[in-house]
Amino acid sequence: MKASLTVKERNWILYDVGNSAFTMLVATIVPIYFNYLAESGGLSSTEYLAYWGYAASVATLIVALLGPICGTLTDTKGYKKPIFIAAIVIGASACMLLGFVREWLVFLVVFVVAKVGYSSSLIFYDSMLADVTTEERMDRISSQGYAWGYIGSCIPFVLCLVVVLGADSLGISMTTAMALAFAITTVWWIVMTLPLLRVYQQTHYVERQEHAIAESFRRIGRTFGNMREQKHIFLFLLAFFFYIDGVYTIIDMATAYGTALGLDTTGLLLALLVTQIVAFPCAILFGQLAHRYATQHLITLCIFAYLCIAVYAMFLTTQAQFWVLAVLVGMFQGGIQALSRSYFAKIIPSEQSGEYFGLLDICGKGASFIGTAVVGVISQMSGNASLGVGALAIMFLIGIILFRISVKAE
After folding, report:
1. pTM over 0.85
2. In total, how many domains does the chain have?
3. In whole angstroms, how far apart are CA 270 and each of 19, 33, 161, 193, 314?
4. Averaged over 221-237, what is the pLDDT?
5. Inside any domain, residue 304
6. Are 114 and 95 spatial neighbours (Cβ–Cβ below 8 Å)?
7. CATH code of the domain covering residue 286
8. Which residues are CB-contacts of 383 (< 8 A; sequence separation ≥ 6)?
9. 329 lies in which domain range?
10. pLDDT at position 189, please?
11. Rg value, the chain, Cα
């Protein structure tokens, strides 16, 4: 196998480096800043966690509904790149705007728009994998994307951290510091996107129809109808729905969960920085292991590890325990995401990658919608966030069972 990366592969990976800066900001500093705005607006800690969960759920629900339609449309010759660009413009513009919002409810609305743009771009980006590399290199390239995304996002994150935590010494207010943080993230995201836009060419596609949007709906209908003949794809999507629930919910709500437990803010941010650093070599390792072991077995290992992590998180009470959690998440986060992406790309028709990744996104975003909503509702009703986090373990258990069944159905 060719060891070096091609220009298309390298530039595709760079987009992971760019968009991961937004992911990192949303998973760390943004929930803490929202807590600051929420307290100013008179919300309690449990209300803050609940409303943050609801906002994340609304964003994922919107993308889950739009994903298959837009994904199917991008399979049409010449459509994928311009729709990808539109999603980035929406997400990046809203990210910049977040730095100028001072009221908690308006902040949540703008955040939903930013998250929708960002998440939509990932549907089209993931579906580009078949266009930039070969099937035998997919596991490696997908893993490299997540790996370099984790470590690359640390650069703008550290800059944001210096600005936000050093606001007093820099002589600026918290709101000004956050505006700078959002600007840094937006610029990084856009700059890292440009190399991919320069070289990307859609090589797998369906020919243009006279009524492209109407044809997209018809293709979705035909795909759902064919699912009975593609049981392994249907079962994988179902399994993915359950196990990725916990993964996305943990990513979205880790800082919010730690803040609700009353843990030190600076410690939480540094712990999640460690997650990114640990995830870098571990994601590459899983990509290398995929050459020696079946991808299915590695995915099974990652799901089981997350099951144990969810159980552990239920009993988390101290800063040191949160650090352990951060390291454990970093060890398996890249593996489960990268290998799921490349495994799915291998079992679907390449010319319909946008459509199928749109369906995958329904499962991923639908699961995340349920996960964040469950954590929010249980936290608000019981006043105990640990109970909501514990419910995620059940999702991992169901996911691992369904995944093994899907493998046997191939």
Report:
1. no
2. 1
3. 20, 16, 9, 27, 21
4. 74
5. yes
6. yes
7. 1.20.1250.20
8. 46
9. 7-204+211-408
10. 97
11. 20
